[in-house]
């Protein structure tokens, strides 16, 4: 509608206006004519995914990262879901590291985004004789393509076999010592507290739909206090102190309502909200927006944690960019969270 012909306040007569060709009033006739100033720069805002397992995805999934503007990613190789033998031996995890190193550059050349590596020993399964693996890790940490240690972090319960919690903490600390030696950041795996499900699945399927692992192989928890998930994170922070690793060199992934206040108020760690499988852990862009409102954007990132064993969404960060804006977050703060923070902590996209 031209400026000289302001919208009528009586829609029943709108279609009578000589300048309005619609036969009867449409939704548009009820608008006041002042369109919001939409930030079109969000369409092309580059973003970084500081936690995924994209080397386990399909070519087409990796292409989705490129198509939606991913500038750089941290592909995390740490034993848990991908070691075929149970119990797991150190050499199984080392094979996973080598597999990621083997494929990384081909992935970059195919898809144009930067792909760097995080290597670690995940404590979600017990590893026999981790000492040799940790010793070998020293040389891996010196590689240019390895920009982080992890994901790792004390886990309240294991898959297949229990791992004594003090032994776990020692393995986490040893990795943090290596990170400190090599001036690398650590990607921390923090345990989530599952939300209420409406109904239990039948037992005989043996798997959780959307998560391809043998659910029946979960071992009895090694941490069984009031809040084992938070206790695990506190042990990680204690391990970092004992390892001489600065808290600002830690990115705690899988932030949720159970660990956000502790990590933001009592530590200097970064917090990464995993939004690529919200159906599983119940965290989405609304939680990120709430955290930015409460604590500011300076220590917050988002990640997808996309992996072949999970129902995950390579478009999750791109979707969140728009969703954060809709939730009232400024463009500058969105850029800080999806791009600048992961760039600066992990030295990506430089
Ligand atoms: Zn992960």
From TrEMBL:
Recorded GO MF terms: hydrolase activity
Region described as Disordered: spans on this chain: 1-35
Keyword annotations of the record: Hydrolase
SUPFAM superfamilies documented for this protein: Metallo-dependent hydrolases
Annotated Low complexity bias: 10-20
Matching InterPro entries: Metal_Hydrolase (IPR032466), TatD-like (IPR001130), UCP005295 (IPR012022)
Gene3D superfamilies per the UniProt record, alphabetical: Metal-dependent hydrolases (3.20.20.140)
Keyword S-adenosyl-L-methionine part of the UniProt annotation: no
Name of the protein in question: TatD family hydrolase
Annotated source species: Halorubrum rubrum
